[in-house]
Amino acid sequence: MERNELAQPEVLEYSADGVDLTLIRWMLSLTPAERLQVLQRFVNSVEEIRAQNAGD
Amino acid sequence: MPATDFRAVLRVLLENGVDFIVVGGVAAVLEGAPISTFDLDIVHSRAIDNVQRLERALTALDAYYRLQPERRIRPQESHLSSEGHQLLMTRHGPLDVLGAIGQSRGYEELLEHVTELQVEPGHIIRVLKLAKLIEVKSETAGEKDYATLPILRKTLEEKGHG
């Protein structure tokens, strides 16, 4: 197989300054309501972990 | 500490007829930026009737200043009529009520840079567009903003490709 047959259009995972572009594309694929749900779940998870470790 | 529930805070503001724009980290997330935040930032109209509606909503939210939580100081109409930042705790988590952001940019100025989004059935909120959010954050950027600005800029680029 010729080398250039394997060539794929360049899709970068990270920008030059280190930003994860895959996360951005994933978030942009969601509706605004789904994006808020993602943030809410993240915050809920952190709060649950904090609560479980509150006595430490 | 109350559990954070962004939708519950937004619901109370909307049910009280408050004119406001969501800015800050939640606005960035709603615009598609993969960042995290623990407080809801809003810029409100400082028209007298709106300040009164906001005060009623904040009472319903049991809002008090986070700086001295033990004193449970409630925001007053005079505070809410100023350009200042009221950093509050509510029964549904932290809420920053901002009279103006960046270089004294208030509700009326920001209103032409919003998008209207539905976050649950029947509830439409105004959210500051990502390009304006980047511009405002750049004006007064602190360390936290320097960390997130590259992500916001790349998100704006990716939106442009979509």
Summarize the structure.
The complex is a heterodimer of chains A (56) and B (162). Chain A is built from 2 helices and no strands.
Structural overview:
The complex is a heterodimer of chains A (56) and B (162). Chain A contains 2 helices and no strands. Chain A is mainly α and 56 residues long. The mean pLDDT of chain A is 78. With 162 residues, chain B is of the alpha/beta class. Chain B contains 7 helices and 7 strands. The interface between A and B is medium-sized, with 25 and 28 residues.
Can you give keywords for this protein?
heterodimer; A: 56 residues; mainly alpha; 0% strand; elongated; B: 162 residues; alpha/beta; seven-stranded mixed sheet; globular
Layout of SSEs?
The complex is a heterodimer of chains A (56) and B (162).
Chain A: H1 21-28, H2 32-52
Chain B: H1 6-15, E1 20-23, H2 24-30, E2 40-44, H3 48-60, E3 64-65, H4 77-80, E4 85-90, E5 93-98, H5 107-110, E6 114-120, E7 123-128, H6 130-139, H7 143-161
Parallel strand pairs in B: 1-7, 2-5
Antiparallel strand pairs in B: 1-2, 3-4, 4-5, 6-7
Helix pairs in contact in B: 6-7
